[in-house]
Amino acid sequence: MGDPLFPSFSILLVDDEPSWLQTFSLALEWAGITNIVTCQDSREVMDILDRGAVGLVLLDLTMPHQGGEELLALICERHPEVATIIVSGLNQIQNAVQCMKIGAFDYFVKTAEEGSIASGVLRAIKMLELQRENRQMSACILGRKLKHPEAFQSIVSVDPGMHAIFSYLEAVSRSSEPLLIGGESGVGKELFAQVAHNLSRCRGALVAVNVAGLDDNVFADTLFGHVRGAFTGADVARRGMIEEAADGTLFLDEIGDLSPSSQVKLLRLLQSGEYFPLGSDVPKRLRARVIVATHHDLAARQAAGTFRRDLYYRLRTHHVQIPPLRERKGDLPLLVDHFLAEAAGAFGKKKPTPPKELVQLLSTYGFPGNIRELKAMVFDAVSTHQGRVLSLDSFNKAINCVEGALGPATVPGSELKPFACFERLPTFNEAIELLMADAMERAGGNQTIAARLLGMTQSGLNKRLNSMRKRSAP
After folding, report:
1. Which of these, 159, 235, 299, 304, is most buried using a 10 Å CB contact count?
2. Where is 372: in which H helix or E strand?
3. Is 94 part of a structural domain of the chain?
């Protein structure tokens, strides 16, 4: 048996010139790309794609019978899972822009070096393989390892760490002990609380209370309720949130902001399983599962003496820590697609097509506001969207606004000594080259994104890159 074909899906070359098909097939094979199908008649393309084996199309624009631009539109409409690269003899910016708007992944001129076009094909293959891996991982994890995958439908993720949390939540779902959910603001802690409640199969409701900013009296009245005449103005009895959550779940958000006196009240509730409505000497039973959440580091707070140690260990009987978005950037394509659909429905618009650079742009950003911030970005972009392909402008503005407010980026522990690992300091030109190389790698080769990371214009970056190439040329 021969070597397996690469990639796993076919690459279809479409051109009416047999000589170009043969030449470029050899160029791709030289680059290690062997799963190639060729087609000289554009009328046959859709039938080939309907068979389902093709993942990438390289398409000429000027052909008899059916033009490349018309064919590109058909491919994007009927086979959106297939990426298309235009390889045309026309070196016209207008044509390139129009093709990108329709949905082409990339555009090359035939006079370009064959190695450059092959590199573009390899980039497209990598993107398609990542997409397929994400879909396969999602199907595998959700379909085989989770007993109740339907409970997690509201959380969009293929991240292995997130799915380990899913499995843990299933394991502790029936426990009567408290569950502590940690994570930065905006990671979706309330979604995990809802999932834990749904998995518990409790008959009652999930009752959520944000305790941040509540003084001790308001906290006690909110949770425990009061009897008539308990204090001035208490003309009628009031049920507390604990009673509202009977046979269900009581979710206390921002638990790290509780005052010391309120911490004592909560500890007593958890220890004894009883509470007294304000003004009453008749105890009531706690009949709800307690879930708490915080964006603070409770371990550090209890070590510093600002959060009771006994309450901390009582709360963290079961504990999950939700990772920030910057640690699960593999979820960005799925999250963007999810929020695009959600935003389109909210604004009564057709779901727009994201530009191919969008996920790469977002992957260079730290998202201090996490999932909530990404959702806000997408909704803002869709609210002003006109046409078919979404604009990058609103995303760039949002990122620049936040990064400008945060100031220069620093790496924790670096103490602003990025060259400490070098035996000798690099020269000024060497440092610039290292910085540009790192920016281009983070930007996935996209000069527009790399220029934004460096705080310079694309034309300025292009000049410096050209100068680097000339100096390194033999």
Report:
1. 159
2. helix 370-383
3. yes
DSSP symbol at 164: H
Task: Please indicate, yes or no, whether residues 21 and 111 belong to a single structural domain of this protein.
Answer: yes
Looking only at the bridges linking them, the beta strands covering 83-88 and 10-14 are unpaired
* Token code pair at residue 464: 């410096």
| Per-residue pLDDT tens over the stretch 3-27 | 568 888 999 999 999 999 999 999 9
- 240 φ/ψ sector (left φ>0, alpha ψ -120 to 50, else beta): beta
Residue type, 469: R
Q: Parallel, antiparallel, or unpaired: how do β-strands 83-88 and 106-109 relate?
A: parallel
Across 375-403, average pLDDT: 87
Query: Would you give the DSSP letter of residue 290?
Result: E
* Residue with the two structure tokens 């990639």: 7
How many C-beta atoms lie closer than 10 Å to residue 22's C-beta?
A: 12
Q: Are residues 159 and 284 in the same domain?
A: yes
Among residues 76, 71, 69, the alpha carbon closest in space to that of 103 is found at: 76
36 and 29 in contact (C-beta within 8 Å)?
Answer: yes
Q: What does the DSSP 8-state code read for residue 51?
A: T
Q: In angstroms, rounded to a whole number, what is the distance separating the alpha carbons of residues 353 and 102? A: 9
The separation between CA 188 and the C-alpha centre of its own chain, rounded to angstroms, equals: 12
Write the single-letter amino acid at 364: T
Which residues lie below 8 Å from residue 202, measured CB to CB, with a gap of 6+?
247, 248, 249, 289
Closest to 368 (Cα-Cα) out of 161, 186, 155, 191 = 186
pLDDT at position 413: 43
Question: Which one, of 69, 67, 50, 64, lies nearest residue 12 by Cα?
Answer: 50
- Locate 249 and state its tokens: 């779940």
Task: Give this prediction's pTM.
Answer: 0.63
Written in H, E and C, the secondary structure of 186-205 is CCCHHHHHHHHHHHHCCCCC
Q: What is the pLDDT of residues 248-266, one digit of tens each?
A: 999 999 999 999 999 999 9
Amino acid at 155: I
Amino acid at 296: H
The residue-averaged pLDDT of 432-436 equals: 80
Instruction: For residue 109, list its beta bridge partners.
Output: 88
CA–CA dist 83, 101 (Å, integer): 14
Number of domains, the chain: 4
Q: Which tens digit of pLDDT belongs to each residue from 169-185?
A: 888 888 888 999 999 99
- The end-to-end CA distance of the chain, in Å, is 42
Examine the domain organization and report whether 153 and 265 are in the same domain.
Answer: yes
The Cα 340–Cα 375 span in angstroms is 9
Domain of residue 371: give its range: 329-409
466's tokens: 């050209």
Residue with tokens 């695009």: 340
